[in-house]
Write a structure and sequence with these properties.
heterodimer; A: 1000 residues; alpha+beta; Jelly Rolls; eight-stranded antiparallel sheet; six-stranded antiparallel sheet; 38 helices; 26 strands; B: 493 residues; alpha/beta; Alkaline Phosphatase, subunit A; 12 helices; 16 strands; 31% helix; disordered N terminus
Amino acid sequence: MWAQTNPAPFLSDQVPENMDSAVSSRLALIFCFSTSVVYADGAIDFARDVAPIFEQHCVRCHSSLSSKGDLSLETFADLKDNEYVVAGEAEDSHLLQVLTGNQPQMPKAGRPLSPKEVDTIRRWINRGAEWPDDVFVREKSKADSSWWSLQPLSAENLQHTSDTTVDQFVQSKLSELGLQPTAEADRRTLVRRLYIDMIGLPPSPEVVATFVADPDPQAYENLVDQLLASPRFGERWARHWLDIAHYADTHGFERDKRRDNAWHYRDYVIRAFNDDKPFDHFLREQIAGDVIAPDDADVIVATGFLAAGPWDFVGQEETKSPELRRAARALDLDDMVTQVMTATVGMTVNCARCHDHKLDPILQREYYQLTAVFAGLKRADRDVSQQARKDHAAKKQTLENAISEVQVQIGQLEGKAIDLADIVGGGNGFGSGKKGLGIDARTGKTQERPFGDLGNVKPGDFRQCEHRFVDGVFVPANQRTQITSTELSANDLPANSGKAWDMIRNGPVSSQFSTKLGATDFNTAGHSMIGLHANAGITFDLQAIRSGWSDDDADEAAAFRFSTTAGYGGRTEEPSAEYYVLLDGELKASRKIGRNDADAIAFDILRAAKFLTLISTDGGDGYSHDQISFGDPRLARVVASHHTVERQQQLADLQQRQKQLAEELTQLGEPPVFFGVVAEPPPEVNVLVRGNPETPTVEVVQPGTLGWKKADVTFGDQQMDEGQRRLALANWITDEQNPLTARVIVNRLWHWHFGQGIVDTPSDFGYGGGQPSHPKLLDWLAAELIRSQWSLKHIHRLIVTSHAYRQSSEHSKRAAAIDSDNRLLWRMNVRRLEAEAVRDSVLAVTGKLNAEMFGPGYRDFDYQEAYAPIYTYKTANSPDLWRRSVYRFVVRTTPQQFLATLDCADPANFTPKRNVTTTAQQSLAMFNNDFMLKQSEYFAERLQRDAKTLEQQIDRAFQLAFSRPATEGERTAAGRLVNDQGLPHLCRVLLNANEFVYVD
Amino acid sequence: MPISRNNQNDAAPPENSGTSRREILQAAAGGFGWLAAQAMMQQEATAASAATLANGTHHRAKAKAVIQIFCPGGMSQVDTFDHKPELVKREGKPFDADGKLQFFASKPGNCRPSFWRFRQHGESGLWMSDLFPELATCIDDMAFIYSMHSKSALHGPGCFMMNTGFTSPGFPSMGSWVTYGLGSESENLPAFVVLPDPAGLPPGGIINWGSGFLPAVYQATTLETTAGRQPIADLFPPSTVANMNRDADRADLDLLQQLNRKHLRERVGNTDLEARIAAYELAARLQLSAPEVADISGETANTVQSYGLDDQQTSAFGRQCLLARRLVERGVRFVQIYCGAENTTAKKIRPNWDSHEDLSRDHGHWGRVLDVGASALLKDLKARGLLEETLVMCTTEFGRQPAGQGAAAKGRDHNAGAFTAWMAGGGVKGGVGFGATDELGFKAVESPTYSYDLHATALHLLGIDHTKMTFYHNGIERRLTDVHGHLISEVMV
C-alpha cells in the first residue's frame, strides 16, 4: 500500500487544519496499517493454506450470492451440515471425493485441483478441519494491491529532472520496435490542430497567415501560451470535464424537471480551467467546497459536481411508497459514489455494490463505506453562500426601506390615513406591512406561524417591540399594568384568567370564528383589522409615527383623528370580553362585548399625545373565544393636505420613484441559489445483500474508502459530521501519496489531446481497463503534475510542445503493419471534431458565434409546462442561441438530436471518451438540418462582405473553413457550383466536407 | 441527395495501406454486426471455428427480425390476460386487511375483479378478456408470460428496465443491442427503427430507445408516422429554405464527394474518411427508401381497413403497425412501436395505460387501440409468411394492482409484482402460457421472471447467446441481461 512506503509526509503536510485530531490520528493508523503473521512450518493454517484454494476454485459458484452451486463455501456451516467434511476423516469426507478421481466432479469449470492442493485439503481435514469463525472465504478479485496503478509513482520519476521530455519516453518505445516518429507537421496544420484541440474553434485566416509567416523560432510555443491564456480554453476543456460529471440542466427520469440553477457549476469548471486552479484544489472543492470555504460562493458552487447527475423526482419525492423511495435513493447514492470515484481515481467501485469487485481489490463493504460518506446529502437548490444570502437580504432590506419611505411620503401628500394594522404587520402604516404577521405579547417579537394557547405568560410584564412605531406589548395584569415604556400604567383593568392565545395580528388571530364585526367583514380588500385575542395589549408610539411627517404639517393644530370598529370575533353572543382604548393612559373607550356587538370609536389626537393603547381582557369568565378585533384602525389627518401644483409634481416624482424601486426589487429576485447538495445528519448505512435496499445486512459501515484489501480505511464513526466525511474523502483522493489521482488526470489530458489515452480506458485503471502503452511516461507526467503544484496548464504545455504532438499525421504502411492502432504514436492521430466543436466551428466560420460567457444556458427549444415537461427543439437562429455549445441548456430525456447524432455525450452516462461513429443520419443532419442551411446562408453573406470577386470569395471560403486557399481545380469546380446554384451551396458543401470536420 | 458516381476517376481506391481488419470491421460496423466481426476475427486467429455460424450468430436463428410493441403506463394483467376468478369471489373485501401495504400512490382499496369478462379462446383454451376481441382470435399463435415482474413501480425506471435491463438511464436498449450484434439486413434502411406514439414520447423520453454507451451507429432511427412530415429527421432540406431542390442537392453532393475524395487521396488508409464518404451515399439511398416505406398508398383497401386506419381512434397505432410490417419486409432488423405516450395526470383521458382513476375509460381506449393494430399485424404477417421469421413481442413496464384505487375503486395503482408479456412468431410456440401469479394476480409466484429472461429468450430466437454478446463500458463487460437471464424454453418451438 502506498502509504506504508512513506507515511511521514502525509502526516506532517497533509492533515488539514480543520480536521479534528481524532480523525487525523485515525487516518494515521490507517495509512500505517499492515499485517504480517508468521506461521510455524508444516502446520496447516486454514486462512493461509486452505482458504486461498476455495477462493480460487470454489466460491465463484459456491457462495451465498450465487445461485449456481447449492452449497456455500464462504463459511464452515454448509460443509459441516451436509457432511461434506468430517473432521479428522479425510477419506470419508464427501468434499475430497468430488475433488479427486480420474475425472473429478469439481470444479465444474476450470482445471482440477493440483495434487498439492488436494493434499493440503486432506491434511487440513485430517488435522481436525479447523475453520476459525472470523475467516470468510470470498471470491478473489483478479487484481490485488500489486496491480500496476496502485503502485506508488516510482522514485526516479519523483526526482526532479529538468531535462526530461515527453519525447524521450515516446521515442524509446518506438525504437524498441524499430519505428520512427513522423516529421513535424507544417505550420498550417499545426495552427489548425492546436486551435481546435485547445479552444475548440478553428483559427481565422489572419491567425494562420501570421503564424505561418512568423520568423520567431519560438512561434509555436508562443501560440501555445496564447491559447492557454484564452478564455475560450476553459470553455473547451470544461466540456470534457462535464462529460465525466454527466452534467445536465434537467433532472431526467419520468418527470424531467428543469434545473434552472445548475449552470453555476458549469461556470465554476470553466473558470477553474481558465485560472489553472490547482487540480487538487479543483477536486477538493467539488467534493467538499462548502466545508472548505463555507463563505466563498465561488468555491461552494463547485459542489454542483456531486449533484450533476440524474435524479428521479417521482421516486424520491412523489411516490408514497417507502420501498420505491429507498430504491430511488439507492440509485441516487450509487450515482454520486460512482461519479466521484471514477472521475477522480478511475476505479469502478460501482461494481462492488452487489458483491466484492470481481476484478479489482475492492470489497462490497468499502462500496458502502463510500456510500456512508455521501449518505447525508440530497440534491437540491441551495444558497451559493451564506454571505450571498446576507448580501441579498441587505440589498432587499435597503430597497424595502426606500420603498416604505416613499410610500409614507406619498401617503402624507395624498392625505392618506395611517393603518395601525399595517403597523402591527411591521409596516409603515401605508401598506408595507405583511398580512397575518403577529407580535408576541409575551416578548415583543415578530411571529408568522399560528399559535394557540400560550405558555409561560407573565401578566403585567411590559415588553418593548422591534417595530419602530410600536412602543410595546403586554398581557394585562389583574391590578396595575404598565402600558408604555415611560411607565404609564392602567390601574382599573378587571381581573382576568392570566392566559393568552396566539399573537397580536395584522388580521384575524388563529382559529378566529369570524372577521365580520357588525355588518363589515374587515378581512377583505380595502379593509384591515388588528386581531387581539384576550388577554393582550399593544401601545403605539404616536411620536414615532409622526416623526416622519414633513415640516409644514407641524403647523397643523389638531394632528389626527383615530377611528376604529371594536368588535368580537368569537362565536359567543353573550358579552364575554372587554376592549379598552387608552390615550396616554387615559381611558377613551371600553365595553364588554359579544358576537353581536360592534362599537364605532373615534376621537381626536392632539400633537402632544404620545401613546395609543389597545387592550383586550377576558371578562373574568375564561378567555376562550375572546377574539377582540379592531376593524380599520386608522389615524387620519384632520386637515386635508393642500393640493398645490408643487405638491402634484412632488407626488408624481415620488410615484415614479416608487415604481422604479419596485422594479429594482423585482429584478433583485430570489436569493442566488445553485443546484447542489444540502446536508442532513447522515443515516446509518448497512451493507445491502446483492445491493438490494430491501435486504440490508446487520453490518453498519462507517464512512471510509478503499484499502485495496490491505487495510480498512475508515474516516470516523456514525457520529462523524457529514461535511467532515466528504472532506476526509477529498483529502484521501488528493493526497500526493494516492497513486491514482495524478495518473488518472494526466492520462485524461493525454487522451483528449491525442484521441487515445496512454491508458485507453480513462475512467478504469483497474484490471478490466487497459494497460498503459507508456507506463514510465504516465508516471513522469503524474510526478510533473504534483511537482508543479498540480498545474494542469503545465501538463498541457508539456504535451502539446512535444514532437509526438507536433508530428504529422501522415500514414506509413510499414509502421501501420507493426502498430496499426498507433498506440506508440509513430504519427499524430487524425481526429474528428466532437459534436460541440462542429457546431461551434460552424458558427465561428460563418461569423455568427456569440462569445458571451457564463450565466444561464441558451435554450434552443420551446418549453411547455406539463406533468412531464415537453421540450420541443427549434432551429437556433438568433444571436442568443449562437453561444458556444458548452452553454447549452442540456435536457436529459430529450437530447438535442443534431448534436446527439454527432456522438454528443448522453448525460445519463459518465463519458470519459466520446464515441466516434459515422452514420447516414449524421450525413443527413449535416447536409439538410435547418441550422446548417441557415448558417450556410450566413457564411455566404459573410463572404460577400469580406471579398469582392467570386474568386476572392471562394478563396476566402476555403481559408475560413479549411485554413488554406483553394487549389486551382477546387476553385474551378467551386466556381461552377456557385454560378449554377449560388454561394450558399458552396458554403453548405464546405461545412459538410471531411476536411472541415476532421483535423490532421 | 441522390448518389453521384460521376467522378469515378476521383474515387481511385486507396492503396492497400496495411489497414487492419479490425479497422475495416469497425468502419463497417453499422452494416456488419459485432458477432460476425468477432467470428471473422476468431476464424482468422484459429482457423474456422465450429462455435459460431458463418454470420456470427451463436446458433441457428429462428427469427430474423423483431417487432416490439411497448405499452407504457402499466397495463393491467388482471383485466387483460391473467384470469383471476378468485378476485370475483372476493370482490369488495379488503385487499390488505392488515393495512401494511403502501402502493405507489395510495393505500390498497378492496379487491376489484376484472373490468371485462374473461373467456377461453382457440384450441389452446387460454383465457383472454373481452377487452381484446380481435387478439383473442390470434390466441393460438401467442405465448403468454404471466409471471413477469419488475424492479421498479415507477414509470421512468420501469420503462428503462423493460427496454434496457436496467432501472437507471443510460444503458443500450434491446434494439441497439440486437443491431450491435447482428448489424443490418438492409442496405437502404436503418437496422433499428422506432415508431413513437404520435402524441409524444414515453415516460423517460428518447433514452428508452437510446444506444446508451454503445456507439451512435447502433442508435434507433425515429420514423415519423404523422402524414405530411418527413419520415426521418433531416431527410430533406426543410421546405422553408429557399433555393433547395433535388438538382441543387445533386450538384452540392457531387462537389462534396469530389472534395472528400481528393482529401482522402492525400490521407491514404484512413477508413474513417472512407466511411464518411460512404455514409453520404447511404444517406442518399435513404432519401429514396424512407419515403417509399412510409408511403402506404399501395396497400389494399382491405389491409388499410384491417389495421383500423379508417377509424380515428385506432388509425395512429394501426398506421404504426402497418409501417412495422413494411419495415421488416424490407429487411429492418428491429422495430419498436409505442402504444401510448408520456404519462400525465390529465383527467380527460390518460395518454397511456396509467389508469389510476378510471381504468375502464383508459384501458377501454388503449385496449381497443392495441387490439385492432396488433391483431391486424399478427394476421398480416402470418398471411404473408413473415410471422415465422418475425418475432412479435408486447410488453409494458409493470402491471396494476388487483385492488381498486380511489373512493369508487375505478382505478388501479402500479404493481411491480406482476404483469403479463406476450410473444408470437419467430420461433415462439403459440397457445401456451408460462408462469403464474398468485390467486389474486398480485405477485408472480410460479417462475417469476424479470426482463432478463424475456430478453434472453428473444436474443436466443435471433441466434444470439445473451451471455456472450458484451460491450466493455466503465469497468464492466456489459450485457443486455446484466448477470442474469434464463431461456424460457417453454415458449419456444
